[in-house]
Specification:
Layout: H1 3-13, E1 18-21, H2 29-40, E2 44-47, H3 51-63, E3 68-72, H4 74-79, H5 81-90, E4 94-100, H6 116-120, E5 131-133, H7 138-155, E6 158-164, H8 165-169, H9 211-231, E7 235-238, E8 245-248, H10 251-265, E9 271-276, E10 278-280, H11 284-290, E11 296-301, H12 308-315, E12 320-325, H13 334-348
Parallel strand pairs: 1-2, 1-3, 3-4, 4-6, 5-6, 8-9, 8-11, 11-12
Antiparallel strand pairs: 5-10, 7-9
Helix pairs in contact: 1-2, 1-7, 3-5, 10-13, 11-12
Length: about 350
């Protein structure tokens, strides 16, 4: 199954019944798939007149209690930023998929991770965060999308899936999660359901003009983000047990890194991988733990170097941290990366 289609089908099976989007490659498989599946399950598909319209349709459906989703690619996600801020401020759950393009401006449609800062810093205005999940294969495109709807509802927050053009278009076998019954989902006691006069108003607000009240609202959001940071960190270790050198990479870059590590391990190099699955909350504690034994970290990204800042903060100067990246949609092979790893390893530890 293609990665984009696996993500879309997992969303349907997680109870998504409201999809709003606008076409942009390399994620066009998602709205195409949803245009067919939403009517089949009694849901609603609307191609908005723009990305901005689409994200506010998501906000409206979420405020009404539905499981809602949109997807786009980098320039389209930029246009949705104001709506993402509103979702966070209103404390409304939603799932947003970003199949990343390469570079600033319109970029290209190749595999890229150039939106790391945009995704992990919240993106829009205000002191907010989003849970950001980075699939490492097509199975995780399905599994993490399925999970994202539960996380969004649990914390009443937008959740982003950050993939890239290569991940979205890779075809692999996938075991799809079960179809849930929407009617079995817990009632959302905050949803605006139109029962005027029968209960207290459920108007959702992020426009709070009284400074003291706004400050309290923002501290409430921060307490929620602290709770997410404590409970929702996800990461994978690969050949970490005896690693002297640790590669930190996510998504497509992590797949390339695994291939490179298998190559250098055959030459006796003690190299491992730490793969963040949640880009926020970031697995800082796991990296700090690895830095107790591994003294050299190589951050490998398909951008000009963004996650390296989070890795350096996590390492806290207890190990050296270096960067290798390929911005612009260029993806090195495992052989290419193995050469980089070998050169660096020999400089720091021992010649082969």
């Amino acid at each position: 199954m293609r990665g984009n289609n696996a993500m879309a089908e997992a969303a349907v099976r997680a109870g998504c019944r409201y999809y709003f989007g606008y076409p942009i490659t390399p994620q066009n498989d998602v709205p195409e798939y949803m245009a067919e599946r939403m009517p089949e399950v009694g849901g609603t598909f609307i191609q908005g007149e723009s990305e901005i319209a689409s994200i506010y349709m998501v906000l409206g459906a979420s405020a009404a209690g539905g499981r809602a989703m949109t997807s786009s690619s980098s320039p389209g996600i930029s246009l949705k930023q104001e709506g993402l801020s509103f979702l966070a401020g209103h404390e409304l759950p939603a799932v947003i998929a970003n199949v990343v393009r390469g570079g600033p401006g319109l970029g290209n449609i190749a595999g890229s991770q150039s939106d790391y800062f945009q995704c992990t810093r919240g993106g829009g205005h205000g002191d907010y965060r989003m849970i950001v999940l980075a699939p490492g294969n097509v199975q995780e495109m399905a599994d993490l999308t399925y999970l994202s709807f539960d996380l969004a509802d649990k914390y009443r927050t937008p959740v982003m899936i950050m993939a890239d053009g290569m991940m979205g278009n890779t075809m692999e076998p996938v075991t799809l999660p079960p179809m849930i019954k929407v009617e079995d989902l817990p009632e959302k006691d905050y949803a605006v359901t139109g029962r005027l006069g029968k209960r207290k108003s459920r108007v959702r607000l992020s426009l709070i003009l009284e400074p003291k009240d706004l400050e309290e609202h923002n501290w409430k959001l921060q307490r929620k983000y602290s709770l997410i940071s404590a409970n929702e960190v996800r990461w994978e270790g690969f050949e970490l047990e005896d690693a002297e050198m640790v590669i930190v990479a996510f998504g497509t870059a992590a797949r390339i890194a695994k291939g490179a590590i298998r190559r250098v391990r055959k030459e006796g190099l003690k190299v491992g991988l730490l793969r963040p699955i949640t880009l926020w909350p970031f697995p800082s504690a796991a990296i700090a733990e690895a830095a107790k034994t591994a003294k050299d970290f190589l951050v490998f990204e398909l951008n000009a170097g963004q996650m390296i800042e989070d890795v350096r903060l996590a390492v806290e100067g207890k190990a050296s941290v270096h960067f290798y990246g390929r911005p612009g949609g260029t993806s090195p092979t495992p052989r290419d990366l193995a050469k980089v790893i070998t050169n660096r390893y020999c400089q720091h530890f021992r010649p082969i």
